[in-house]
Amino acid sequence: MENTPNITQEELELMERFWQGKFVDNEEERQLRERYATDSLWRNKADEARLLVVGIREAALEDKLPGFHRQVAAPVRKTNWLRMGVAACIVGITTLGVLSFFSKSPGERLFSQFYKPDPGLPSLMGVSDSYEFENAMVSYKTGDYQKALYGWQGLRKSNPGNDTLAYFIGSAYLAQGRTDSALTNLNDVIAVPQSVFRSDAAWYLALAWLKQGNKTEAVKALQQSDHADKERLLEKLNK
């Protein structure tokens, strides 16, 4: 099939992790999400692989499926059972991951597609006690969100109106999947018109609302953001 994407086993493994959300590390997650957003060829391959693996019933896609499996396994000699087995396992694992992806609600799927944690700050912004803040930031950047929360929440007791703390506490909660707590803290940032985090807070607020299935509030939050993916997400929400 001349229109079947030329997908290597390495690419298929990356796509498997992308759709499952099971990345090797934060850097791989950042790279794959950026690649999906900016590399139209790779995005088309990933979308095509997803559709083919789950067995979409349209005739045109069904015709492509045998060729797709041949491309995943090729070049394979008839006697190379190991490579054939590996290819079959990859396809099987990918299928499970894609089925898991499609078992989510529309809002959860959009959240998975667009969400990536805020990368954090390289230096102090607006918090008086630099060591405690930056120590918590290191924990946040290494994925220890609970330890980061412990540090920032301690600081916030003496800085209750600090928008920097509110933003990163909300970001840590969202990274943990604790959406209600994330909404509370991100809304605190939105309430500060002059906050440098207001646009980013609005973006993550929209994603948090999507995860909870509240499209109306998600759109409201998006209107207050200037995130690079804002229009693309709005387009998907308006379909």
Describe the structure.
Helices cover 69% and strands 0% of the residues. The model is unreliable at 54-65 and 68-82 (pLDDT under 50). The longest helix has 22 residues, at 81-102. The chain is mostly helical.
Characterize this entry briefly.
This protein is mainly α. It is 69% helix and 0% strand.
Describe the protein's topology.
Blueprint: H1 9-20, H2 26-38, H3 40-53, H4 59-73, H5 81-102, H6 106-114, H7 130-141, H8 145-156, H9 163-176, H10 179-190, H11 198-211, H12 215-222, H13 230-237
Helix pairs in contact: 1-5, 2-3, 3-4, 6-11, 7-8, 8-9, 9-10, 10-11, 11-12
Indicate the radius of gyration in whole angstroms.
21 Å
> Kindly state the mean pLDDT as a whole number?
79
Query: In total, how many domains does the architecture comprise?
Result: 2
Would you count the extended β strands for me?
A: 0
Strand content: under 5%
The gross shape turns out to be globular
Low-confidence stretches: 54-65, 68-82
Q: What series of H and E elements makes up the topology?
A: HHHHHHHHHHHHH
- Which structural category fits the helices and strands? mainly alpha
Q: For the report, how would you describe the main beta sheet? A: none
Tally of separate helices:
13
Question: Which architecture of the largest domain would the CATH scheme give at its second level?
Answer: Alpha Horseshoe
CATH topology label of the largest domain: Serine Threonine Protein Phosphatase 5, Tetratricopeptide repeat
